[in-house]
């Protein structure tokens, strides 16, 4: 597989060692399945064997939890299933309707350099889904707090005032420092004219920045500037000869600073200041939005509170019961959400069914939390 989205979170090993693993794809198949036959995984260079003669067969609705010590081959099994590992021998057959039906994410998923809707839709075009679908997916992922940052919400006047509160306050304080209360009206008129002309949002969000929102934002900004003068004494002796021109310059600077602030904090995925748990909630937002048929999930709840992790996996099983999931997990209490369990030990891939209401098994202290 060479599809870019499958390489998002996993890097193939160096091209050394044996290259006998055959990966066969049938992207237009109505069937969803993964079949691994006599798979031996080697460390690149052939110095060591990770898995010896492993076999695995999954189909629609199967969910397998992979556990094992660090270095046991869990992530390598992911890579070989996606065609990103070729050290060893055996065969892998994967069937699905479309390569974009295959979803993969690691515990530290990278964000594409786009707006929030593009991050959630990736690798699909952002206009594949409706605003309602985006917002619903984020609610399902227990991440309602980020909904205002979706582009159609982010460029609403009230949200811009909130997102850019600090930069607006600082810019206005500096611009009005030498303006007396008596000169306020001329300053405000000049600023209002400049704002109506220069206010803008990042290019990718211009379609949502309507004329009425622009007018409302300009009105809110002039009100904020007026408030600066209301705090000032009428006998302020500081004076400026050309307050209207000063207002125009202030409006231009304010528009520029707002645009920069929006671009830095709302548009580019790599610049979003998100915690590990927030990034993992976005992963589930992507899942609930895209509804993939095949999922490779590598410890995608490792930074979440156990209760949140359980809630998200429970929703995942309820909403996508026919999807095939291969999940590396760090918390043994999550095994109950899977239909099969493979514990990688002694270079063996041993697969067992998960009994309903089975008690958690020990993962040798891998889980950092106590359920």
Brief account:
This protein is 36% helix and 18% strand. The chain contains eleven helices and ten strands.
Keywords:
371 residues; alpha/beta; Rossmann fold; 2 domains; six-stranded mixed sheet; four-stranded mixed sheet; 10 strands; 18% strand; elongated; disordered N terminus; disordered C terminus
Describe it for me?
The strands form 2 sheets. The protein has a 6-stranded mixed beta sheet with strand order 6-7-8-4-9-10, with helices on one face. Helix 3 (131-140) packs across helix 10 (276-290) and helix 7 packs antiparallel against helix 8 (211-230). It starts with 19 loop residues before the first strand and ends in an 18-residue tail after the last strand. With 371 residues, the protein is of the alpha/beta class. Strand 9 and strand 10 form a beta hairpin. The radius of gyration is 27 Å and the shape is elongated. The chain is built from 11 helices and 10 strands. The protein folds into 2 domains: 4-114 and 290-353, P-loop containing nucleotide triphosphate hydrolases (Rossmann fold); 155-269, no CATH class.
Write the layout of secondary structure elements.
Layout: E1 20-26, E2 33-42, E3 49-59, E4 63-68, H1 74-81, E5 88-95, E6 102-105, H2 116-121, H3 131-140, H4 151-154, H5 157-163, H6 165-175, H7 184-198, H8 211-230, H9 243-267, H10 276-290, E7 294-298, H11 306-319, E8 324-328, E9 340-345, E10 348-353
Parallel strand pairs: 1-5, 4-8, 4-9, 6-7, 7-8
Antiparallel strand pairs: 2-3, 2-5, 9-10
């Amino acid at each position: 597989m060479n599809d870019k989205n499958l390489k998002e979170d996993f890097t193939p090993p160096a091209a050394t060692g044996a290259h006998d693993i055959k990966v066969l794809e049938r992207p237009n198949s109505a069937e969803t399945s993964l079949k691994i036959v006599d798979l031996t995984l080697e460390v690149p260079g052939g110095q060591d064997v990770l898995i010896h003669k492993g076999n695995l067969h999954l189909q629609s609705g199967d969910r397998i939890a992979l556990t094992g010590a660090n270095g046991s081959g869990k992530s390598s099994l992911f890579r070989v299933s996606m065609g990103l590992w070729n050290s060893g021998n055996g065969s892998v057959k994967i069937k699905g309707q479309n390569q974009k039906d295959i979803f993969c994410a690691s515990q530290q998923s990278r964000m594409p350099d786009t707006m929030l809707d593009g991050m959630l839709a990736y690798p699909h075009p952002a206009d594949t889904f409706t605003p309602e679908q985006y917002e619903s997916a984020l609610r399902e992922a227990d991440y309602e707090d980020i909904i205002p940052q979706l582009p159609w919400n982010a460029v609403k006047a009230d949200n811009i005032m909130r997102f850019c509160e600090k930069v607006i306050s600082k810019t206005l304080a500096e611009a009005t420092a030498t303006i007396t209360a008596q000169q306020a009206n001329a300053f405000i008129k000049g600023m209002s004219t400049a704002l109506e002309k220069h206010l803008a949002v990042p290019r990718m969000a211009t379609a949502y920045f309507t004329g009425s929102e622009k007018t409302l934002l300009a009105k809110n900004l002039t009100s904020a500037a007026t408030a600066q003068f209301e705090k000032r004494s009428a006998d302020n002796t500081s004076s400026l000869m050309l307050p209207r021109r000063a207002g125009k310059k202030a409006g231009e600077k304010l528009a520029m600073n707002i645009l920069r602030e929006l671009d830095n904090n709302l548009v580019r995925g790599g610049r979003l200041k998100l915690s590990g748990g927030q990034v993992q909630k976005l992963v589930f937002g992507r899942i609930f939005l895209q509804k993939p048929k095949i999922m490779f999930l590598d410890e995608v709840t490792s930074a979440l509170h156990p209760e949140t992790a359980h809630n998200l996996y429970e929703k995942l099983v309820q909403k996508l019961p026919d999807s095939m999931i291969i999940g590396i997990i760090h918390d043994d209490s999550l095994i109950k959400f899977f239909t099969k369990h493979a514990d990688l030990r002694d270079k063996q891939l041993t697969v067992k069914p998960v009994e309903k209401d089975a008690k958690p098994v020990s993962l040798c202290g891998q889980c950092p939390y106590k359920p």
